[in-house]
Amino acid sequence: MKKVLPSIWEVRPSVRLEGEVGLFASCNLTAGTLLIRGDEFDETWVTWNKLNIGTDQPRIKGLIEKWCYFDDDGVWLPRDFKTLPVYYHINHSCEPNIGHTQADDWVALRDISSNEELFMDFRLTCLAPWYRMECFCGTPTCAGTIRGDAWMERSFAMEKLNSFPPYARAKVVAYHGLDT
Ligand SMILES: [Zn+2]
Fold first, then answer.
1. Lesser CB count within 10 Å: N end or C end of the chain?
2. In the predicted model, what is the mean pLDDT of residues 26-40?
3. CATH fold for domain 9-42+85-176
4. Is the Cα torsion angle 148, 154, 155, 158 positive or negative in sign?
């Protein structure tokens, strides 16, 4: 008989972003809980050159900026924008409760209650220097703007070094000439 596992999260209207949806815990999650393993992700890295998005395709660029991790070299593309996995609905917070491990797993960074909205820090995942998005996270340490070049500041890079996902961490280490 096939074993059906309960979902740990679900999509609902965001508590922070009016008119948007977000990802919510559907059970209590203790700090360190593994939410999704790195090898369960289904994205492919494609360079901007290979993707060759012309100015005639603003719709594709819009989809990528809304949904994907990207930097100035390329983008992690989903298999199909029509059938995005549930975890794509996670929103940003400057004080996230979900983070990446160096195995690229997603884990709970602290105890999270059932029905709490889940947040990731996009400054750790979108390393495109030109990227800017106004932040409405409302946390005490809110940066005001989500900047795709935050990682270029040495103090930010050092403070968050082990919080970047592996592909981003490698880029940060190379940029700052860190010996790790
Ligand atoms: Zn913020």
1. N
2. 95
3. Beta-clip-like (2.170.270)
4. positive
